Structure formats: structure tokens, C-alpha cells
Amino acid sequence: MVVRRIVANLRADNPAEARTFYSELLGLDVVMDHGWILTFAAEGKMTPQLSVASEGGSGTPVPTLSIEVDDVDEAYRRAQTAGCDIAYEIADEPWGVRRFYLRDPFGNVVNILSHKE
What we know:
The mean pLDDT is 95. This protein is 15% helix and 30% strand. The protein has 2 helices and 6 strands. With 117 residues, it is of the alpha+beta class. Strand 4 and strand 5 (97-103) form a beta hairpin.
């Protein structure tokens, strides 16, 4: 047996509220919309991953999601401009990532990151 993908399912009373955050802020495409569920996706191929953690690193809480982007500084500027709730300020971490946390419209802590080159 081979795991093909892993999908995060976030609870939301009004899934349509996710469109602005995940589509407009992060640039994800809506690939399925049944009203009661919206599925967002991006081009590209990735390896299925699942993390289990006791903390988020640097003393932060474990985020609900981690989303890797090509330009974390641009994502941070967009989040600030949009008035997002920044839960952890942008930082260069000792394990080789630059990241910040923000809360989505449903209160989930989302880790936005780029790997440092």
C-alpha cells in the first residue's frame, strides 16, 4: 500500500469564509466547492507528510497547518496588509526555516514558512 496524499480537513461553520484567506492571501486555487466543503490546491507535486509534535519549536504552540511558500516575506506583508492575526512574528529559526504564524478565520494557527537556502 502507498499513501498518495494527505488532506487536512478544518472545521468551519461557514467554509466560504476560507476563500479570502486561503485563496486570496495565499494564492491557493479552489478545486472543489460543494458549499459545505471547499478544497484548495496549488500546482506542483509534493510528498505526503504528517508531523506529530509536542511543540511548534522555539517554544511556540503546535500549529494546525504548515504551509511552505516560495517567499515568506511576501506572505508576511500580505498578511499584515490584510490585518491578519499574527500569532508569532516572522523569525529565522535555527533549523533552517524562516516563518511566522497567523490565525485563519476559524482560529486555526497556521505556520507559513520558507526553507532558507
